[in-house]
Records
---
Amino acid sequence: MLQLRDADEGGPGGGSGSPGSPGAATLVPGGAGPPFEPPAPPARQTLRPLSVRTAGRAGRLRQYFVFRPGTIEQAVSEIRVVVLPAEDGEVQSVWLLTEIDHWNNEKERLVLITDWSLLVCKYNFISLQCQQVTRIALSAVDTISVGEFEFPPKSLNKREGVGIRIQWDKQSRASFINRWNPWSTNIPYITFTEHPMADADEKVASLCRLENFQTQLIQAVKKAHKEGPVPGSATGVLVLERPILIETYLGLMSFINNEAKLGYSMTRGKIGF
């Protein structure tokens, strides 16, 4: 390498500013100096927000048993056993949706559209067992409403998003006693919305799309009305775009249920339920 050397260390005198003059310096070969070291990387680095969100969502996805490999395929295969060919006909499609009851509680459900029925299955994705089936005759469905959720003005527990409500037997509201009974099953309608992780897994995304479910349901109901109308009732189904009213006010029970995801088969610490 080259080193700077003062002129007075050797060489003839000269004018100011020339090599060899006092105060001047010349470049001469010299010994090896200290090795070059690159600057150290910064102690802190900022991660891209997109990576952070993706990792967090993937972690939450693994908490749901339905999204574990092979679970949904086995559930769909086993759930077909509940279909009664003489009463339901053939299965047209299977869906993974969230039911919203009349007290705003979320419940994970497998829903089957058949030729003549709508089957709503309470399925345990941990033990892989169908625990309950609600059968709704498509020919009895008279109104299908689609829209955003709506609550009373003084309600303390509200939700956002879009839902679909299916009504039958020409009853738009349950009785007063049934409306105020959180465990009542004598409700003349059922309400669905998309699963909270519907867009997180491409393999099951097609089973969770509410818009596609709506299209196939309307087609199936119209076909059932045409082929097997109920005596004494008007044929056809009324399809409306209007808010989906949920009449809850305090909503403490549904708040706890929905925040803790108690209506879903999930891992909860070292246990799952």
---
Amino acid sequence: MVSVLPRVERLSSRVIRVLGCNPGPMTLQGTNTYLVGTGPRRILIDTGEPAVPEYIGCLKQALTEFNVCIQEILVTHWHHDHTGGIPDICKNIPISSEYCISKLPRNPHHEEVIGEKKQKYSYLKDGDVVKTEGATLRVLYTPGHTDDHMALHLIEENAIFSGDCILGEGTAVFEDLHDYMKSLEKLLAMKTDLIYPGHGPVVNEAQTKIQEYISHRNAREKQILNTLQENTGKSLTTKELVKIVYKDTPDHLHKAAEINLTHHLKKLEKEGKVLCENSPNLRWKSSL
């Protein structure tokens, strides 16, 4: 069971969390969006999914309750549960000028469209700093979950807004395991105290959580290799491997588990530790 989170909650003197009201197996309680700063104008990090009027209502409630407005919008990565609410915010919570909406570019770079093309992204780069009264955010390029993923280091609290690189509960999915592991090592080296994740509750033991993520992926890799070595001479499909390696994971999460397992196998194949057979369908065996 996931923790119960309030829809609007002040987490510190400079961070307010507004839940995206889009709960699900992959989004947990919903996407966490954050209003950051101490002054009348706050930075909004992430925007939830498209067409969720409950979220817009909660965001309006937070802005009214704390007597603040949105200075600009930062999104941690391109996934629709983080960028989808942008058009609804622009339409329902207008400001005197256009919102500045920023993110890291896709890799390889291509121009991205927001909603009905009424807004455009301003592109950031690793190391950029975004400021508002009471908050300084430094951009950290943390690919792996997606090719454009960024975390944000809140200097004043030595905290990280981790997007989907690290979650408050459970583990994350990723597109590229090699990049993802590098990003986790990068975050670990920062020695931060606190993590404000893209989904789930605040992580108070940041270093412990990041190390757990690294250890979990290393253990999973070892488990996959051991399973293939125990079946020497046989080759297994990813579905067969998931049933063995993820036997303690609920069935409805096996599809996501299979994606992660495939990325592990591709990494191991690059390292020459496993072989892929393409006939009659994709099968894997140990080469050790």
---
Amino acid sequence: MRGYCFCTLKSLQKYQDSALLPSMYTFSLLATAVAITSFYVVSALYKAWIDRRVLNKVPTIGGSGILSSYIGAYKFVSNARDMITEGYAKYRGAAFKIPGVSNWIVVVSGPRFIDELRKAPDDCVSFRAAAKDFLQIMYTMGPEVFYSSYHVEVVRSPLTRNLVARFPDVQDEIQSAFEEYIPQTEDWTAISALSTIRKIVSRSSNRLFVGLPLC
């Protein structure tokens, strides 16, 4: 009897130990997730604090407080044109900033500032870095598109030089696309402008880059 009871207690102890393993694993995952989230939040707050110090002297459209800036960012998503028009009317010939969801958008106007922006070197104002941040290229297109910029040189040199020679093909494709997607009718016809333009631009680009008959 004692041996039987001993085996039962030993088996019960093993069962309890095995039952604790999933709980310990879940707790470990939860602790790791909390640590990563905390690190991300602290990093984001520190970056926001640095950006705020740098841009503190630039006037704001849409609120510059901790909460009001997010309200302004929401307004910018749905009403960007009016906010930019308001900033241009108030600070014409100067700079102003608009809150975004994750950063500040600085808008400059006036010939002097625009000329300074045009002449600024890449180590001060980088179009590639701005495109990486705005389009999130590392996640949407992949790091190879950002670090291997062969396509930029292709567009600048051989493609630009051959645009005149390829223009008849592109023009023919545009006419064909318009006849297919926006045909002439005797009465008003409703079409989806965005999806239609996407198809026309896609077909025209493929005709330029690939050509017939593959496109």
---
Amino acid sequence: MSLAVAAAAPASGPLVFGVPLKYVSLLVLTVQNSMLVLVMRYSRVASNVQFYASTAVLMSELAKFAICLAIVARASASEHGRLSLRRIYADVLGGDCWKMLIPAGLYTIQNNLQYTAVSLLDAATFQVTYQLKILTTALCAVAMLGTQLSRARWVALVVLTAGVVLVQLPPTAANDNGPPDASFSLQFLGLLAVVIACVLSGLAGVYFEKVLKGSRKSLWTRNVQLSLFSTAPALLGVLAVDGQQIRHTGFFYGYSWWTCGAIACQALGGIVVALVVKYADNILKGFATSISIILSCLASVWLFDFHITPTFISGTALVIY
């Protein structure tokens, strides 16, 4: 999608149709965070015919690569007066591009785990639990970047963890007449997928930040490298996990408009986060995340007949806080 971005005074930053780009990116991030979980969940439960999650991850990376490459090409043509494919090729694949191989692999596994988790957990629980990535990112920043966290931030991380634990508690103990083994096993597998995805998200995010701080390449060039190198492990996942079934049913088996929406939301997410990192700050980003959690929970009540319990409200409040 083409946006008319005009230069503005340095104090206010770039504008999009007269609105500061940082607020536009935060608005889009709020909508994207809410829609991603809801659309992914609905795409998995709307039909008995399940699409292959590995193919959706691959399509998302290809879409992200095409969008970021177009942005890099436009910026290069604007800077040098003409479009040079050789210059773009050297910029993307030259120098230390190999550093993007590590986060590319981590993000690919994380994206596949997201589909697994959202298939096993309801959208609201997934959205709240996935905020554990804040904890894992903070721990990775301390370990890998030597970041010093204040006592207040450590307390906030403990509160966040307590909130996630509360969300996982069973809604009531009144149904103890029957064995809850099947539902508990699914809930546990979904939670395990989320936790692993959060750990991978923290590792990849902090590593990506470390590479950005030690490089002169633009954020968009790094995103082109990241999405390009993600296609290889994503394709490997397609062949290894669903290759046998795809040979019989086809690559796009089970696809619907909801599947395309999930792919678009996932591709858009990486791009929007890049804009937020560049033009906004962590406080505004956290505010957008809090709003998206509330919207996802409310929408889950309507779309998936989700029942909000006192423990869920308490846990969500702690996570947002």
